[in-house]
Amino acid sequence: MTPRFVRPAPLLPGSRVAALSLSGGFVTEVMGRYRAGVRQVADEFGWEVVNAPNALRGAEYLDAHPQARADDLHWSLENSAIDGLLSIIGGDDSVRLLPFLDLELIRAHPKPFLGFSDSTVTLLAFLRAGVMAYHGPALLTDLAENGGLHPFTVQGLRRVLVDPTRSFDLAPAPEWTEHSTEWADETLQEVRRPFTPGNGWQWLQGDAPAQGHLMGGCLEVLDMLNGTPGWPAPELWDGAVLALETSEDVPAPRQVGYWLRNYAAQGILIRAAGVMLARPRGYTPELVQDLYGWVRRVLREAGREDLPVVANVDFGHTSPQLTLPFGAEVQLDPAAGRVTLLP
Question: Cα separations (Å) of 332 from 251, 280, 309?
Answer without folding.
Answer: 26, 20, 8
